[in-house]
Amino acid sequence: MTVSSFSADVRSILDAVNSIIIGKRQVTKLALTCLLAKGHLLIEDLPGVGKTTLAHTLASTLGLGFQRIQFTSDMLPADILGVSVFDRDTSQFTFHPGPVFTQLILADEINRATPRTQSALLEAMEEQQVSIEGQTHPLPEPFFVIATQNPSHQIGTFPLPESQLDRFLMRIEIGYPDAEAERTLLLGDDRRQLLQDLQAVTSIDQLINLQQAVNDIHVAPALVDYVQNLLAYTRDSGLYHFGLSPRAGLALLRAAKAWALIDQRDHVDPEDVQAVFPSVVKHRLQPVSEQGSVDFIADLLAQVTIA
Amino acid sequence: MNKTSPSPTAILWLMLGLTLGTAPHFLHQPIWVSLVFLIALAWRCMNIYYGWPLPGKKHLLLRFVQLGIAGIAILALMFSYGTTIGRDAGVAMLTMMLGLKVVEIQSQRDFYVATFLGYFVVITNFFFSQSIPIVLLMFVVVTIMTACLISLNDPKHQLNERSVLKLSSQMLMQAIPVMLLLFVLFPRIAGPLWGLPQDAHTGTTGMDDTMTLGKISNLIQSDEIAFRVKFDGDLPPPSQRYWRGPVLWQTDGTTWKELDRNSQSPITPDIDFSGGEYSYEVTIEPHNDHWLFALDFPNRLPTNVNAHFTSDGQLRSNDAIKQRQQYQLSSQTNFQFNAPNEPLIKEALALPKDKHPQTIQLAQEWFLQDPNPQRYIQRVLQHFNQKSYYYSLTPPLLIGDSIDAFLFETRRGFCEHYAASFTVLMRAAGIPARVVTGYQGGEINPVNDFLVVRQRDAHAWTEVWLEDEGWLRVDPTAAVSSDRIELGIGDIMPAGMRSPFFITNSRQLISLWQNINNNWDAVNNAWNLWVLAYGPELQKNFLSSLGMKNPDWQKMAIWLAISISTVLLILSFTLLYQRKHPDPVVQLYRTFCLKLARFDLQPNTGEGPKDFAHRATSTLPHHKNDINTITQLYIDLHYGKQSAALTDLQTAIKLFQPQKAI
């Protein structure tokens, strides 16, 4: 199978998503990249810019089972994972699966929950399974988590620790729409209604095929050199508290491959790496100096030579 | 502050480097010199941390304060050294001015000057000491200085302190092969490259050419090494380890002196040798005088040092020993030092007028009772042995006629007391005698089997002349304390005096301490013999052993050039290889970029080929097709899965002749 054979699928997914999310082509492309790269997505932005809508749209378009979990500060791990309840008829404990047992989860405002509850979900994300009272329950395939969080300086938030941020392949921001898009949004139909009418454009098999195709995207030695240069720079320059981990390197390459697939190429270009770089790296890297941290990712890219 | 002024961090590092570099000088400089330096650095620190003003255009008054300090410092130097040049005064001047320079660092240029002076400070340390700790410390200082230069050339602070230090030590590591080659192959010339100033050799301890009672016991306090000896084969027993030095003849009653050196012609003394031979190599520490110590009498002159014998059997170097030197000798167990000539006999009998009345009376009394010289000698030795004479490192002060006071009152003394009074007793009885000073004993270092002779092994004994036997060694100290001779001075000193563990008597701790000492001395000795002593002689031998026939400076220069170029080539190739082996595709793409460079188009760091092509086509829209084709070919070849033909790219780039739009 060549890359072009997937282009129809990719285009129809993007078109469907963009019909709901208006004027955010870059964001929807990144979100799809993340899903094709089998990564979990963290959306960080202010309330009301369309985080939930984006997640919901993706689920509907891809024909995935969808659950939304609204995180609150009094939430317990069992509220997510499920509980074993004693059944009087059978005199046995039966497991009642929680909302986590679905293909696409929208974990809304994840940073409002206590760290204990956060880690219950994050462990499930990492292990692709849930263990309760000695029993292991596998999660469905594919399994995505799209978490949203409010900017952490807002009141009543428990910011995710760095180690858990690392579990998310990408972190993206949506941002306000531009004037024209906003106008369309204001004058157009109710998004909720549109979402309900939205039909799945691909099947789960097609999605799994797409994910498979990402694996086959070619990565030239020169490109690996470039990725290594980037990693080395974050470690040796002394500008960041910690350099990027090998996991971050894998994530970067994987996301770049998915991006190349969406762009209908059978190999990864340096520009693909640069396109996904901010989303993959920004939440894993902490600049030492407070000043100039606004656009430190662009500064970083401008410092590393392309092999 | 302008953009080019060095950062406070860089200045702090520079100050650390300078302080470490000048620290060894603090030990021998007047304290006020070090204070001026440290106060100047403290001033700069206060500026960095608390914003204290610095001298400059803004604070003219402070500029005058600074100049005032400099002026006073120079005057104080003149007053205390009498000059501002020479080793000691020069280094003191350098230290103070360096401190004041740090205060006024404003621009990059100031920083460079201070850093380069810092490198120079490293060299000045070797005027004073070339020991291993100093060398290691100077490696650290050079690393810090180099780090300062690196951080000055990193104005955007892209490297943190650790990476700067890492880079600096990496660079120095890469320089080490070249350093070693230069060390081994750079033609050595006899003597120092430039004459060290006169004051460079003061303050060395060692034997003196006069002996006053109480003088040697000062040497006993010193653990400093006088010389080290390596024997080929067996060592003489401890009681035979007499290292002969200055021979003292003339006395005024308190001080003993050598014969007038001008009256002595350098002749070989008349000595008959027999018995087993000990051959050995002595490495002597500089003592700023002419003696070369030897085991009794050597049977020939050393070959590698210009030296001569005096008529009283001293081995003297023609030049003062100002550097560590090695010489090979051999001595024999039996020898007969034959009759001296008449004037010498006279010297060996001379006593000062009207001195030591009691001693002379006793001598004459005993000699009259039994005029046989040998039995007389025995009687005097027995007197020392059986009467209550004590060997003491801290003898009481002698009042009045020192010899009489010692023999008849205090009776506590040290080798020089016994040697001097014994000699007087001999001369008073008409037996020619002279005092010999030198060292006795020495410790074997079990690590490298060198015999280490320290200043505390200094000793004095007597030689008497008997008609048939020539000059004979008699050591009156042995009659009082045979342990001093049999065991050596180290073993008779209380253990606490020899180790830092004054409070403990733990044998384990003391032996551990000795062990460490022995190993450290062995390392130092190897350093002396192989690194510091690497002069023309050793270089010639070493290079010959490597297969270079008759090494002369031309051959060395050629080999130096060849080997250094080889090392540099290897180094640069490994560095280049680590970077990237040249890839024809990348080369071609570079040619393409070069062609665009005429239009001020160059790919920026971190700019991908597509982004660059986009920028290029917006500048040169009429070449859009060419640029896009070449870029696509390059991407396919460099990043793509199935390779496009390299020749396509080649021809496309060859045909690509960008022109300005008309």
Describe the structure.
The complex is a heterodimer of chains A (307) and B (662). In chain A, 46% of the residues lie in helices and 15% in strands. Chain A is α/β, with parallel strands linked by helices and 307 residues long. Chain A folds into 2 domains: 4-74 and 102-216, 3-Layer(aba) Sandwich (Rossmann fold); 217-307, Magnesium chelatase subunit I, C-Terminal domain (Helicase, Ruva Protein, domain 3, Orthogonal Bundle). Chain A has a 5-stranded parallel β-sheet. Chain A has a two-stranded antiparallel sheet with strand order 3-4. In chain A, strands 6-7 form a two-stranded antiparallel ribbon. The longest helix of chain A is centred in the first third of the chain and has 17 residues, at 4-20. Chain B has 3 domains: 8-153, no CATH class; 210-493, C8orf32 fold, CATH 3.10.620; 584-655, no CATH class. Chain B has 24 helices and 17 strands. In chain B, a hairpin with a 4-residue loop joins β14 (443-445) and β15. The longest helix of chain B has 27 residues, at 553-579. The two termini of chain B are 48 Å apart. Chain A binds chain B through residues 218, 220, 222-223, 225, 236-239, 266-271, 274, 288, 301-307, and chain B through 158-163, 580, 583, 603-611, 635, 638-641.
Give me the secondary-structure topology.
The complex is a heterodimer of chains A (307) and B (662).
Chain A: H1 4-20, H2 25-36, E1 40-44, H3 51-62, E2 66-70, H4 77-81, E3 82-87, E4 92-97, E5 104-108, H5 115-127, E6 129-132, E7 135-138, E8 144-149, H6 162-165, E9 168-172, H7 179-187, H8 191-197, H9 204-215, H10 221-236, H11 246-262, H12 270-281, H13 296-301
Helix pairs in contact in A: 1-3, 2-11, 3-8, 9-11, 10-11, 11-12
Chain B: H1 8-26, H2 31-50, H3 60-81, H4 87-103, H5 108-128, H6 132-152, H7 161-185, E1 210-212, H8 216-220, E2 225-232, E3 242-248, E4 250-251, E5 255-257, E6 271-284, E7 294-295, E8 307-309, E9 315-317, E10 325-337, H9 342-347, H10 357-369, H11 373-386, E11 390-391, H12 402-410, E12 412-413, H13 415-428, E13 433-440, E14 443-445, E15 450-454, E16 458-466, E17 470-474, H14 476-480, H15 482-486, H16 489-492, H17 495-498, H18 507-532, H19 536-545, H20 553-579, H21 584-597, H22 609-619, H23 624-639, H24 646-655
Parallel strand pairs in B: 11-12
Antiparallel strand pairs in B: 1-5, 2-6, 2-15, 3-7, 3-13, 4-5, 6-10, 8-9, 13-16, 14-15, 16-17
